[in-house]
Amino acid sequence: MEYVTIIVRAVFIYFIVLFAIRLCKKREWLNIVVVFMIAQLGVVFLIYVEKPLLLFLLPTLTLLLIHILYIWLIKKEEEMIERIQKSHSQQEVFQKIIEKERTSSSERATLPAVLIIDGKIQFQTLQVLKKTEFWLRKQLKQLGYRNIKAISYCSFKDGGTFYIEETSQDYS
Fold first, then answer.
1. Three-state SS sequence of the chain
2. Are 18 and 76 in a shared domain?
3. Residue 99: inside a domain, yes or no?
4. pLDDT attached to residue 138
5. Is residue 37 assigned to a domain?
6. Does residue 104 sit within a domain?
7. Where does a domain end: 66, 93, 120?
8. Better-scored residue on pLDDT, 147 or 105
9. Which pTM was predicted?
10. How many domains does the chain have?
11. By CB atoms within 10 Å of each CB, which of 58, 62, 73, 159 scores lowest?
C-alpha cells in the first residue's frame, strides 16, 4: 500500500506543478520543473539511505511517464490545430477562386457550376451560388428528375441552363 501512496503523491504533485505552469503559459518551464522534481527525489533518496531504491524509482518513473504522455498529447493537439487551420485555408482559397470565376463572367464565358457528381450533391458549390439543396431538388423536379442518385453529373450555367447526365444504373 505504501508504493501506491507514493505513486499517487507523485501524480498529485505533478499536476499541481503542471497547473501552476500552465497558468503562466510557459511550457518550456515544465521541463525544468520536472527535472528539479526528480532531482529533489534523488536528494531525498540520498538522505534516507535505509529506504529501498524502489521508493525512489516509482515516483521518478511515474513523473517521467506522465510528462512524456503530456508532451505527446500537446504535440498531437498542435498537429490537429495545424491541420484544421490548413483545411480551412484551402476551403477559403477554393471558394475565392470560384467566386472570382463567377464575377468575371462579363469578360468571358464562365465555367458551369458542378452541382452533382455520381449522385452526390456538391454542397460547396451550392454555398458559392448561394443556393440550397431544396432549390436544387425543386429545379430537378421541374426538369423531371426525382432521384438525385440517378444523376451522374449535373452542372448549372449562369443563364439558368442545366446540363444533366443520367447514370446507366436503375435507381427507381
1. CHHHHHHHHHHHHHHHHHHHHHHHCCCHHHHHHHHHHHHHHHHHHHHCCCCCCHHHHHHHHHHHHHHHHHHHHHHHHHHHHHHHHHHHHHHHHHHHHHHHHHHHHHCCCCCCEEEEECCEECHHHHHHHCCCHHHHHHHHHHCCCCCHHHEEEEEECCCCCEEEEECCCCCC
2. yes
3. no
4. 93
5. yes
6. no
7. 93
8. 147
9. 0.41
10. 2
11. 159
pLDDT tens-digit readout, 62-83: 888 888 888 888 889 888 888 8
Domain, as residue range, for 13: 2-93
pLDDT in tens, 97-146: 777 766 655 545 567 889 999 889 999 989 888 899 999 999 999 999 98
> What's the rounded Cα separation, in Å, for the pair 66 and 79?
20
Identify whether 123 is part of a domain: yes
Name the amino acid, one letter, at 76.
Answer: K
Length of the chain, please?
172
Dist. CA 90–CA 79, nearest whole Å: 16
Query: CB atoms < 10 A from the CB of 37, how many?
Result: 18
- Identify whether residues 86 and 156 lie together within a single domain: no
